[in-house]
Automatic annotation (TrEMBL), chain A:
It comes from the Bacteria. Residues 1-78 form the Carrier domain. Keywords: Phosphopantetheine, Phosphoprotein. This is Phosphopantetheine attachment site. The keyword Magnesium does not apply. Pfam families: PP-binding. The lineage of its organism: Bacteria, Bacillati, Actinomycetota, Actinomycetes, Pseudonocardiales. Coiled coil: none annotated. The keyword Transferase does not apply. SUPFAM superfamilies: ACP-like (SSF47336). InterPro entries: ACP-like_sf (IPR036736), PP-bd_ACP (IPR009081), Ppantetheine_attach_site (IPR006162).
Automatic annotation (TrEMBL), chain B:
It holds the Pfam family AMP-binding. The lineage of its organism: Bacteria, Bacillati, Actinomycetota, Actinomycetes, Pseudonocardiales. This is Amino acid adenylation domain-containing protein. Residues 10-353 form the AMP-dependent synthetase/ligase domain. It comes from the Bacteria.
Length: 86, 493
């Protein structure tokens, strides 16, 4: 996964984050305007655009809590098929 | 044992099924016996802090387990509960504090700092066990008030509707005559308990002996399907935005919440595409359309899946009540004609708190002194008496000389495949009518599809496609927020 791809999808859904502002990895995404509806849009866009599928057990509030927790979840989802192939 | 006061509902269930789960939030579950015990302990605690009959108790805890016991605790003292959203703006909260003059406020840790100038307590202060000092005997009459429910509407500030014990119990009983909540139901409510739709889930579940799972906005997002499944949810009260989320998540996961048997919808019409998708996603699911307003709680409930047989209908008025369309003089109109929705029956609430003029205008009296609610909503009825909502009086606007309703345009937009939500902003000084839709769509497609469904003179002057529409705390489209959002985008489409 390209980090900047993840970032650009994520930032698109944070309406309270100015374009040039930095996004701290541990800051709650809620603070930047990620409500439940936006989080659903974000989930679908991440899966579509990064070609990943988040497994069921990652559908928790913790996964969508911060940029870092979400990046980790998406990273795991990307790595999984590759690990199976090897 | 018949319930005459609100807490009798709980006392009855605690006698019938003491060990059945009553309420749950996260890992915490209380049985009916525990819920009753808590409500008695809380009542003693409130009394010790000076709460007496007729007092208002403000609950800034719209998703807390404690709130489900506190409403009964207030009832035991003859006091009124007032549940508020914890996302309320200080501007509105200050107004409500002055308007309701509560004896005290109970708040979650997060919301405790919001209220100033009144005694504020935290939920953690509440005792788990009673001392047994509550006097026997009834605290008040069934015609005494038990709740204030604040709603926003045509007034500039939120106003409160007063409900008596008898009115709440009648409404709950009439609603359940249609919906049929059962003792083995698990009701998942992620709407705030400050919203009457959420609040009545407490009363309906308690009445039936069902288990109420209290969720919050965090459960309304990507985690929704998982939550519904892990709690074994059978009944899910939703609003259109939640229906859209659920449909998409089930489609994505490829498996439904197995035990889900019924969803109810109110607040705004459910798009036909949403009902169709939900039934496809969840085999055997019953989708129930309802219509209501806080002033009489619920007006009508449709047969399950009525969108297939009477598209757009909100069903028949509740048993024991009457609803009709009236002309400007208040006379009944024949079937098919549009007029003001008027409601009669024991579901009509007691009026607005400290607003005698507005109360006189809306809550009128018939020749026998009985209340007749003039809702300010526009509607029509078909030959069989089924209600069709047309719009609020304030939703009616004129464009190119033609009278039309926001709802008409929104309904046409929702009929376009791919449109998840739609909201129309009526024309103002700055711009003509603007339609915003949510969905993965292109503007020219939406405009073309609207043109198939609406006469040209009715088409909005601007169409905007967004990922999602801003929602109020009750899950309805927040039109004020939408207008600000569009202004912020410089009107680009």
């Amino acid at each position: 996964m390209e980090d900047n791809e993840f970032d650009s999808v994520l930032r698109r859904h944070l309406k309270n984050l100015p374009e040039d502002a930095e996004l701290p990895g541990d800051a709650p995404l809620k603070k930047y305007g990620l409500d439940s509806m936006q989080a659903v849009e974000l989930l679908f866009d991440l899966e579509d655009e990064l070609g990943v599928v988040l497994p069921d057990e990652m559908m928790t509030g913790d996964t969508f809590a911060t940029a870092e927790s979400l990046r980790r979840a998406v990273g795991t989802a990307v790595d999984e098929p590759a690990a199976e192939m090897s | 044992m018949t319930a005459f006061l609100l807490h009798h509902l709980l006392d009855r269930r605690a006698e019938l099924t003491p060990d059945a789960p009553a309420v749950r939030r996260g890992e915490r579950t209380w049985t009916y016996h525990e819920l009753r015990t808590r409500s008695v302990a809380y009542a003693e605690w409130l009394r010790d802090r000076g709460v007496v009959r007729g007092d208002r108790v403000l609950l800034l805890a719209p998703h807390a387990l404690e709130t489900t016991a506190l409403v009964h605790a207030c009832s035991r003292l003859g006091a009124l509960h007032v549940v508020l959203s914890d996302r309320i703006r200080p501007y509105h909260l200050d107004h409500i504090l002055g308007d309701s003059e509560p004896r005290l406020v109970l708040a979650t840790d997060e919301a405790a700092g919001l209220a100033v100038g009144v005694p504020v307590h935290r939920l953690a202060e509440l005792p788990a066990t009673p001392s047994g000092s509550l006097p026997a005997g009834e605290p008040c009459a069934a015609t005494d008030p038990v709740a204030l429910i604040y709603t926003s509407g045509s007034t500039s500030m939120p106003k409160a509707v007063i409900s008596t014990h008898a009115q709440v119990l009648f409404a709950a009983s009439a609603i359940n005559a249609r919906l049929g909540y059962r003792a083995d139901d698990v009701v998942f409510c992620c709407l705030p308990l400050s919203f009457d739709y959420g609040q009545y889930q407490m009363f309906l579940s308690c009445r039936a002996g069902a288990c109420l799972v209290v969720g919050d906005d965090g459960d309304a997002g990507p985690t929704l399907l998982r939550r519904l499944t892990e709690h074994g949810t059978t009944v899910f009260p939703l609003v259109p935005s939640l229906a859209s989320t659920l449909g998409r998540l089930v489609g994505r996961a490829g498996r439904p919440p197995e035990r889900l048997r019924m969803v109810t919808n109110t607040g705004a019409a459910l798009p036909v595409t949403a009902s169709v998708r939900l039934r496809e996603a969840v085999p055997g699911l019953e989708v129930v359309a309802m219509f209501g307003l806080t002033e009489c709680k619920r007006v009508s409930i449709a047969e399950p899946n009525a969108d297939l047989t009477r598209p757009g209908s909100c069903g028949l008025p509740l048993p024991g009540t009457e609803a009709y369309a009236a002309d400007e003089d208040g006379h009944r109109l024949p079937a098919g004609e549009t007029g003001e929705l008027v409601v009669r029956g024991p579901n009509v609430m007691a009026g607005y708190w400290r607003a005698p003029d507005l109360t006189a205008r809306r809550f009128r009296r018939d020749a026998f002194g009985q209340p007749v609610l003039h809702t300010g909503d526009r509607c029509r009825f078909d030959e069989d008496g089924h209600l069709y909502f047309v719009g609020r009086d304030d939703d009616i606007y004129k464009q190119r000389g033609i009278r039309m309703s926001c709802l008409e345009i929104e309904a046409a937009a929702l009929d376009v495949p791919g449109v998840e939500l739609a909201a129309l902003l009526p024309p103002d000084e700055a711009s003509g009518a603007r339609l915003a839709v949510a969905g993965d769509l292109l503007v020219p497609y939406v405009v073309q599809q609207l043109g198939v469904r609406l006469e040209e003179q009715k088409l909005p002057s601007q169409v905007v496609v967004l990922d999602a529409l801003p929602l109020s705390v009750n899950g309805k489209v927040d039109k004020k927020g939408l207008a600000e959002l569009l202004a912020g985008q410089g009107g680009a489409s």
